[in-house]
Amino acid sequence: MSYRLGVDVGGTFTDVLLVEEGSGRTWRAKTASTPADQSVGVLNGIAKACGEADIDLAEVAQVLHGTTVATNAILEGKGATVGLVTTRGFRQVLQIARSYVPGGLAGWIIWPKPEPLAALENTVEVDERIASDGSVVRPLDEDDVRAQLQQLSGQDIQALAVSLINSFADPAHEQRIAEIAAEVLPGVPVSLSSDVLPELREYERTLTTVANGYVQPQVKKYVTTLSEQLREGGVAGELAILRSDGGLSSATAAIDSPVTLLLSGPAGGVTGAVWVAEQSGHRDLITFDMGGTSTDVGLVRDLDPKIGRETKVGDLAVRASSVDVRTVGAGGGSIAHVPELTRALRVGPQSAGADPGPAAYGKGGVEPTVTDANVVLGYLPTTLAGGEITLDVEASRAAIGKIAEAMGLESVEAAAAGIIDIVNENMLGGVRLVSVQQGFDPRDFSLVAFGGAGPLHANAMGRLTGAWPVIIPPGPGLLCALGDATTSRRDESARTVLRRFAELTGGDLVTVLRELADDAGRRLAAQGVPTDEQTVSYQVDVRYHGQGFEIPIDVDPAWLADPDAALQRLGETFDAEHDRLFSFLLRVDHEMVNARATVTGPRPDVAPVVLSDGDGDPAGALVQDHRIYVGGEYVPAGVYDRARLRAGDVVPGPAIVTEMDSTTLVLPGHAATVHPSGSLLITPLEG
C-alpha cells in the first residue's frame, strides 16, 4: 500500500494529511510552524503523521506541498538582490510603471510608492531592438552586453532578470544575453522574460520576470533543502510543489519558475474545497476560508476554479495564472474598536495574531477580538483541539466589556453580537467581489466553509448570501493539506499573437493552440506524466479592436475539430462574456491578443471515505447541553462530537458541533445533515 502526504504551511501551524491510496484512509497532524526554517516544521509534521499511521517514511510515495516561501519573501522584503537588463532607453520601466495610484482623489499625496524589486542602480541598458513583429531593428551589441554585465558583477547581485522590448516576438537576444551572463556572472540564476511571461506589455512582463528572480534563490534553497532532508529521513517518494493556479509542479520546475508559487497556500484550500464539494454532489460553489487574520474567498463553476491572470501579494501584482481568490482583513483574531470621532463599532483589519492572540487564549492578550465575541456568546466551547487549549471566558468578557462600555450598551452579549454581525458583513463584501460583481448570483452556488474559524461563521454567511447548502468538510482546519494531496500535475504555455480576426483563419487559431499544447505537454512528460494521460485546456485573451484591455475566454477543445467554425465561436463567446460583464457590445472587429494552453495530468487515485449509516438521530453524539446567545436572548443548544456522527444524522439548530481543529455553529431555524462523505450540509428548515 502506498501513501500520499499533503503538507500546508501556515503562519502559526503546519498541517499534514497522510492519505492511504486506494482505501482513502487519512491521518492528520498539526505542528507549530518554524518561520526561520519552514522545513523543520514540515519534517516534524510528516514524522508525526507517519507515527500516527504506524508506517515507515519509505512507504510515502509523494509529498505534495503548498508553501508560502515565495509569498513571505515578497511580503517581508527579504528576496534576492536582482540585477535587471533592459533595452536601451527603457531603464526606468519599473519606476514609471502604470502611473496608477490606489485610493481616492489626491491619493498620490499620501501614498507611499513601493520600491521596485530591482533597484535603479542595479538596472542596465543594452544596445539592441526588436520590433513587435519579431524583426530585428538593431542587432545585439555583445561587447556592450559584456560591459554592462561586468558593471553588475560589482553590485553583488544574487539573481539576474532580462526583459527586452518585444522579446515575446523573438527571444533570440535574451537567450544570447543569458549565455553571456553564464560567463560573466557564473552561478547567478537568470530569468528571461521570454520564458517567464512571453506576452506583450513591457511593464507587466518586466515586473513578473524580476519577481521571479527576486524569490528564486530563497525558493531554490528551501526546496533543495527539504528534498535532501526528506531523502535523508527515509522518504523515498518525490516532492511536488503546489502552484498558484491549483496544479502541481515538480521540485525542479518550481525552482525554475517560482513566480508561479506566490498563491500556493490559498490555492490548496480551493482545490480541497472542490474535492469535498464533488463528494457531496455539488459542482458550483463559493469557497470561504476564514483563518485568524484574514478570510480568502473564491468562486468555482462546474468544479472548475476561476483562474485569474493576475497574482497579487501585498503591493505586488504580477502576471501569473492563479486561482481567483479575494482576501478580506477579517478573521478570528480581528480586533474590534470604537473610534472616538465616530463612536461607531469597527472590526479589523488589525489582528491580535497568534501571539498574544485573543484574550481567551490566556497568553496576555487584552484586545477584544472576534474569537472573544464568539466565546462570550457561547459559540465556542471552553476547550478546543481535543482539550489541548482551554479558553478563558472571563478574560473574553472583560475584553468585550470595553466595547460595551464605549458604545453605552447594557450587556456584554449585545456588544459581542454586534462584533459578529459586523465581521460577517465584512466577509460578505468579499463574497460579493467574486460573485455579484462578476455577474454571478450567490444563490446559485453552495458555500464551502473551512479554516479554523470558517465553520463558526458559515451558517450566518449562508443566511446573508442565500448560498445553500453550506458545506462543512471533515477536518476543515486541514482542508488546504487535503487540497495539496488531491491535486494534479499542471504546466502552461503562452504566446502573444495580436491579430484581428479579419487577419486570422480558424486554421491559424488551431495551429497556435496545438503548438502551445505540445510545448506544455513535453514539459509535463519530462515530469513523469505520459502524453496519453494528459488533458489539455485552452484560453485566448480577446478584445474589441481598439480596446485597452482584454477578456480571457476559455476555448472548448471540441472547437478545434472544426477550424472554420472555431474563430466564429470564439467571437460569439467573447460577445456573451462582454455583455455579461459590461452590458453592452461594440460593432467592431475582434482582436486576439494572447493564447494559452494548460496541460494537466490525471487526478490522484485517492478514494473518499464513506461513513457508516446512522438512523437520523444524532443523540449518540450529544456531549452536553449548552446555552448560546442568539436573537437577543439565551437559548438552549446541544454540543455534539462530530467524530460520533453517522451518515444521515440530522443535527437541528441551535447546536454546536466540535472536532479537533474547528467548531461548527448551527443557528436556530437550520439543520446540519451528515453526508456519507463526512461533510455537514447546513440548510434552512422548511417553513
TrEMBL record:
Location of the Acetophenone carboxylase-like C-terminal domain: 509-673
Residues in Hydantoinase A/oxoprolinase domain copies: 205-486
Protein name as it appears in the record: N-methylhydantoinase A
PANTHER family named in the record: 5-OXOPROLINASE RELATED, HYPOTHETICAL 5-OXOPROLINASE (EUROFUNG)-RELATED
UniProt organism field: Geodermatophilus sabuli
Any one GO biological process: glutathione metabolic process
Molecular function GO terms recorded: 5-oxoprolinase (ATP-hydrolyzing) activity
Hydantoinase/oxoprolinase N-terminal domain sequence ranges: 4-184
InterPro entries from the UniProt entry: ACX-like_C, ATPase_NBD, Hydant_A_N, Hydantoinase_A, Oxoprolinase-like
Source species, domain of life: Bacteria
Cellular component aspect of the GO annotation: cytosol
SUPFAM superfamilies, alphabetized: Actin-like ATPase domain
